[in-house]
Toll-like receptor 2
Amino acid sequence: CTVLFYFLLLHSDTGRPSCNRCDRRLSCDCSRGGFTRVPMVTDRALTLDLSFNNITEVTDVDLTGHEQLRALSLHGNRLVVIDPSAFNSLWSLEELDLSDNQLTALDPRWFSKLGALQQLNLLNNPYSCIGSAPVFDGLVRLRRLAFGGPALREIQRGALSGVSQLEELTVHANNLTRYESGALAYVWPLGRVTLSLHGPFLTDRALASSVLADVSYPETPMVLEDLYLIGNESVKPFYETAKRRVRYITFRNLFISDETIVRLLVVVNGVPVISFIVDNVTLTGEGRWERANWTDHRAVDEFVVRNVVVLDVFKFVSFLQLQFLLQYPRKVSVINSKAFVLPCPTSSLLMNLQYFDLSDNLLTDMTLTETLCNGNGTLKDLRVLNVSGNALKSLSTVSRLVTKLRKLTHLDISRTDYSFMPQSCPWPSTLRHLNISGAKLTTVTPCLPTTLEVLDLSNNDLKDFTVALPSLRELHLSGNKFLRLPPGNLFLNLQALTIQSNTLNMFDRSDLQSYKRLSNLQAGQNKFVCSCDFVAFLQSTIKGDGDVQLTDGEESYVCDSPLYLQGEQVGQVHLSVVVCHRVLFVSVSCGVALFVGVLLCILLWRLHAFWYIKMTWAWLKAKHSSRRRQRLRDDPSSDALLTFDAFVSYSERDATWVENFLVPELEEPSEAGENSMNPRPLQPLTLCLHKRDFLPGQWIVDNIMSAMERSRRTVFILSENFVQSDWCRYELDFSHFWLFDGDAGGDPAILILLEPLSKDDIPKRFCKLRKLMSSTTYLEWPQEEERREEFWRSLRNALRGGEEDD
């Protein structure tokens, strides 16, 4: 069975595609890859995104081995079949997204082993019923659950059986036709609930009331989507939310009339609704809501309107009749609603206003002046003002308008058309946060208030910053054209600096040390020149050395140059010593080479290598001239070229013997004596002596070679002086020993020992001489007078090639 299992396992992987798009954090993004099967990825993956592919089936072995997987997304595929045990090995899975597929039924076995699951998305699948089986039983750690879709028709009582508490519950049930009361009431506490109940609000308001009743809690924010509220009957389900004192209500994708608004205000009369948010709302009336002015909404603290469409804007009446609504909120937001002005009388109704957001509208400098009542301080309690994303052009105008807002601490004037900053501007002394990002500023001037603690100048055209802001704690300069970090001495209390996506080439420790209190730096996504100093500094900073931390991640710091490092993360770059310390490397290399050279020369001198080299060269020359020498010896006609009968090699210390005995006896022979066996006179021999016959100015070895070439024989005078003379004298007097080579074709050398000397007394480097002493008969100079005549006769015979005297 085991063998069969592994066979099937291996067989099932045949033909499966692979996905290698995993980053260093083991997050694998295999989305939009055109996969029709679950691809193979590393079993060490922590997150796996398979969204927007064409996968139709997940088999029992597709995810085997992924015990470490934390998040899996199969969103936007064509899933029809999931094997009951497909997820059994995903013991560590915390997030699972199966939304927007073709699952017609939910199988409880899919989730039976997912004890660590915290987030599950089952939206927009064609299953029609939920609750017939305890689908979520055992998911005790589940905190975020989303289910439903256009096909959902029925929610039964056991739908959320096993789910004890949720931080967020999302139910899309626009076409719901049957709901068992209490089906969603199992969950408590419930952090937030989002309901899409378009159909029930139109056709079955009793069903909608049942759903709302089960999820309405005072402290649970409720989001209601896709509602069409026309007529008094459409608001009946809200009696349930009012009864349970729901305090946070959000409408999303709302279509509503004046009549319904009035009725809704009546329904929630006296209910302590703290937050009332409307996103994507279409108004069909004229704003005549004063009929509900008797109602009590003093509990409303936040009122947000985003993306408002007024069908008949020219008939829309003034808000002056809505004091009963406007006088209470402390936070009012009118965002992206094409508002171009809020008349001063209407603004004056916002008596408790502390937070005012008019972003992404059509305000100009003139209409903003009207909205803020020409800066007369009407909004005396205002602390936060956001007019970003409007067509404002004059920075001096907005500074003047807010000067009298004595409690203003936050001002957002980003994404405007400011291109010029005046030299001075009035500001309230309480201003601490200023956002002028996304404008067109090119310079910074002392217009900026010195009281600022947070300043955002991102996405402008700034190149430098020279204004001192001693109280500043955070500075955001991303998306500009800075070439270097701003001087740190301008910001004595700066703790966080963001300067991403500029033209920074590098920065170093001295730049950061000028910031006395800087602890967080984000400087990635710049064009860094990866010099040795910068790479070493940044790598040490990444490791946590120093007081400043790079909070935007190591991957944000990428080399732009030199070219061979372009695209490499600075933290992964390794530069060699040759690149980083070129001068030092060359100096050390030259020093080492010089030292080695000197050491080698000393070693060669001690080992007499120079002597060997000279002798080798001389030997090579002798080899080269061997043919010439042989021709001279063999050709009788060349006798005229052989100037000498013998070349005599001797030590300078033996010169007396040579000059007093050898030369007179061979070059100046006397007549035969009484005892002579040969009455004829002896023929004189011509000897070559270095002291007498060498040419001055030539290298000694050349003289030796020349002498040997012009001599019939060579005579070596051997004595103890050979052994005990200095090596430099050996080079001068005996280097020609190396020239003797039996292959040269010359006659053997004649050795004369002036005193007893064995071959062991000869230095080993005279290998040829040692060889000669072993293979050649040598003459010994007799100390007895009577034996010398025989010595001279033997020597003459040897020099004449064995010819005997008569």
Q: What stands out?
A: Confidence is low (pLDDT under 50) at residues 1-12, 671-678, 727-736.
